[in-house]
Specification:
By secondary structure, the chain is mainly α. The protein folds into 2 domains: about 80 residues; about 200 residues, hpI Integrase, Chain A. The chain is built from 14 helices and 3 strands. A 3-stranded antiparallel beta sheet has the order 1-2-3. Helix 7 packs antiparallel against helix 9 and helix 12 crosses helix 14. It is elongated, with a radius of gyration of 24 Å.
């Protein structure tokens, strides 16, 4: 069997399950393999030590970053195991032993509560597009660090009063969320009023799967460009993207003493597998309390700043000398 046939069949299966990002990951790896080889090739030819080492050396020669190389190698490794399971190739011991398939730690993506507070309180009313992007960033933070792709695809039917449950598009984990008062204000401000749209927020509109994927990609690019403009306007030196809200929520929660297993479930992570084995599912009130701790930390920063300003104005008034 040729690689193209195997990958196309696999991608079609993922499309049927709605796992478009997973399918795109395999397609990216396939395109990279084809580009290196110069055309299609048989599965038995690409899953050999010599071919894989030559491919890996080519990625290094091209100057790809470590995690980009890991991205391709890990997906090829997954393709190999699927091909072995289907009986299309013969298993070969240690084939990937000398190729890195685990990502290396990346640059810090979280920002401090002070930066989150500064973003929350910035007056962007003169710039509607920037205000919308800021509000979506803050909403992502307030909703337990929900990923931007999951925020964009939240449906009206997901919300039940003050609660909603969503399924992460990346891991398929189900995550319950209690809508905090601050988050409710933003949702009410932007709630999609189009009766034809199933989506809660006007980030994307309904269409075919292909159209919606493109709409989301466009929205993501626009969101990150707007966030870049906002931090420049506010004089913030930290790098802020859609990921920042999610990473910041987790970091602040951890620093405030929220247990790691609670953070893991609140964000729909699968990295606390052992914890999930011996701990029962946390009550929704526990997740809500964790979210309240994080939000209150940011609100406290703002309250302290307002108190300082009031005290400063009072001091200036007392020190002012009367005329005459």
């Amino acid at each position: 069997m040729h690689l193209s046939h195997f990958v196309n069949h696999l991608v079609a299966d993922y499309h049927c399950c709605g796992r478009y990002q997973t399918a795109e990951g395999y397609l990216s790896a396939y395109r990279s393999m084809i580009a290196f080889h110069g055309g299609d090739l048989r599965l038995c030819d690409c899953f050999t030590a010599s071919w894989l080492h030559a491919y890996h050396a080519n990625l290094l020669k091209r100057g790809l970053r470590s995690n980009s190389i890991v991205f391709y190698i890990s997906r090829i490794n997954s393709l190999y195991h699927k091909a072995v399971s289907s009986g299309d190739v013969t298993a070969r011991a240690g084939l990937f032993d000398h190729l890195c398939t685990k990502p290396v730690p990346t640059q810090k993506r979280a920002v401090s509560p002070e930066v989150i507070s500064q973003l929350c309180e910035a007056d962007l009313s003169k710039y509607p597009a920037l205000e919308f992007s800021r509000d979506m960033f803050v909403l992502s933070f307030y909703l337990q660090g929900i990923a931007y792709i999951d925020l964009a695809h939240l449906r009206k039917s997901d919300v039940d009063g003050e609660n909603f449950t969503y399924q992460r598009r990346k891991t398929r984990s189900t995550v319950p969320v209690v809508i905090d008062a601050e988050a409710r204000k933003i949702i009410n401000k932007y709630k999609n009023v189009d009766p034809e749209s199933p989506y809660l927020l006007p980030i994307i509109r309904s269409g075919s799967p292909k159209e919606e994927r493109q709409l989301y990609k466009n929205a993501l690019r626009k969101q990150n460009r707007c966030l870049e403009k906002i931090v420049q306007m506010l004089g913030i030196t930290d790098h802020v993207t859609t990921y920042t809200a999610r990473h910041s929520w987790a970091t602040i929660a951890h620093n405030e003493g929220v247990p790691t297993p609670v953070i893991s479930q609140a964000m729909g992570h699968q990295s606390e597998e052992v914890t999930h084995i011996y701990l029962q599912s946390f009550d929704q009130s526990v997740l809500s309390n964790a979210n309240q701790v994080v939000i209150q930390t940011v609100l406290n920063v703002h309250q302290k700043e307002m108190k300082k300003r009031k005290q400063s104005r009072k001091t200036k008034w007392v020190c002012r000398k009367p005329n005459g």
